[in-house]
């Protein structure tokens, strides 16, 4: 009971901080630029606007988009909000993650012993999200043969989304190459599920070589995730959808 109480308190604290921070930034950004130089903004509003602009400048310096916020649950159900874990898991030290989350060190370490536990929790959360989206697509598809096209469309939306920084699983595997490491194992778990799910889908669709086709889809997906970050994402989306349609 005490653990559950601490988890609820920690979650409420972080959510209050995140909500207050978003509110300050939104209020500052709504103020007309010309009024900022005198006229209609009082001293407190000018300070809030300046703080918001400085915050956006600081985040832009490390490549963190200002509109990509997501809660991440730890193994004990706690939540730490940071702006972009795709960036944090590879480049940001724990101190910077704590700063971006606007939580105390005690709150962070109460829920996550270190950054690696946070990264693993994030990957597990992403895995659950992707599985849920695939299941939803399967329910909405008219037939299993339609699913690859839906997968391509979903990948295209992700690649072209605001703040896209590449695949978190590929990024994490590059950062933690040891296959025995828990983070790399979380990556392997996700990819094993994805490969088997694609194989089962293609088998149900009557594909003559579903295992091979599933591997081709994974290669296309991996290439699109990297290319969507390095090249023109719209062009990558079009190429991905056309190629998958020919399988």
UniProtKB/TrEMBL annotation:
Record domain HTH tetR-type: where: 66-130
Pfam families: TetR_C_13, TetR_N
InterPro entries with a match to the protein in the record: Homeodomain-like_sf, HTH_TetR, Tet_transcr_reg_TetR-rel_C_sf, TetR_C
PROSITE patterns per UniProt: HTH_TETR_2
Keyword set includes Electron transport: no
Region feature Disordered, mapped onto this chain: 17-75
Keywords: DNA-binding, Transcription, Transcription regulation
Basic and acidic residues compositional bias, start-end: 17-29, 40-73
Gene3D superfamilies membership: Tetracycline Repressor, domain 2 (1.10.357.10)
DNA-binding region as annotated in the record: 93-112
Residue intervals passing through the bilayer: none
Full protein name: HTH tetR-type domain-containing protein
Source organism (scientific name): Amycolatopsis deserti
């Amino acid at each position: 009971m005490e653990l559950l109480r601490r988890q609820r308190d920690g979650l409420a604290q972080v959510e209050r901080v995140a909500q207050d921070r978003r509110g300050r930034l939104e209020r500052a950004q709504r103020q007309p630029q010309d009024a900022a130089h005198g006229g209609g903004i009082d001293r407190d509003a000018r300070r809030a606007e300046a703080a918001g602009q400085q915050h956006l400048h600081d985040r832009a310096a490390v490549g963190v988009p200002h509109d990509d916020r997501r809660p991440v649950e730890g193994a004990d159900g706690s939540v730490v909000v940071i702006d972009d874990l795709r960036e944090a898991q590879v480049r940001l030290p724990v101190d910077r993650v704590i700063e971006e989350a606007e939580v105390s060190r005690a709150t962070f370490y109460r829920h996550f012993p270190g950054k690696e536990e946070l990264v693993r929790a994030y990957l597990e959360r992403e895995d659950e999200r992707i599985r849920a989206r695939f299941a939803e697509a399967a329910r909405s598809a008219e037939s299993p043969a339609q699913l690859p096209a839906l997968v391509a469309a979903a990948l295209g939306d992700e690649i072209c989304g605001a703040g896209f920084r590449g695949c978190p699983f590929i990024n994490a595997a590059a950062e933690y190459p040891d296959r025995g490491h828990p983070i790399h194992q979380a990556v392997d778990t996700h990819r094993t599920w994805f490969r088997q799910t694609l194989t089962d889908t293609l088998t149900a669709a009557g594909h003559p070589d579903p295992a091979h086709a599933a591997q081709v889809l994974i290669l296309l997906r991996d290439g699109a995730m990297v290319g969507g970050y390095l090249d023109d994402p719209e062009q990558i989306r079009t190429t991905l959808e056309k190629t998958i349609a020919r399988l």
